[in-house]
């Protein structure tokens, strides 16, 4: 299990795994760490606002090679079942 507090959680679809019909349809990065966490599912807890949920795109790819993603700001738990639960921060 992974548990991180007050951090950025970047989530993006995993097209290769979706095409191969593998269960981990999501890619997840925590903070500025380049370690990829493969997710089967994820959910948000709290109220989404312009401060804690921010979509992004870059045709050239971001630092992780992603072209489209959602940044979430909050506390995250990734379970052994590869499910991320993000408790959104509020300001």
Give a concise summary.
With 91 residues, the chain is mostly beta strands. It contains 1 helix and 7 strands. The chain is globular and about 40 Å long.
Structure, described:
This protein is mostly beta strands. Helices cover 5% and strands 52% of the residues. The protein has one helix and seven strands, in the order βαββββββ. Strands 1, 2, 3, 4, 5, 6 and 7 form a seven-stranded mixed beta sheet that branches. The protein is globular, with a radius of gyration of 13 Å. The N and C termini lie far apart (27 Å).
Overall pLDDT score: 95
What summary fits the major beta sheet? 7 strands, mixed
Cα-based radius of gyration, to the nearest Å: 13 Å
Counting copies of identical and different chains, the oligomeric state is single chain
- Give the helix proportion (percent range): under 10%
- Can you count the beta strands? 7
N to C succession of SSEs: EHEEEEEE
Q: What structural class results from the helix and strand content?
A: mainly beta
Which of globular, elongated, flat, extended, rod-shaped describes the shape?
globular
Uncertain spans: none
Strand content: over 45%
Q: What is the overall number of helices?
A: 1
The N- to C-terminal Cα distance equals: 27 Å
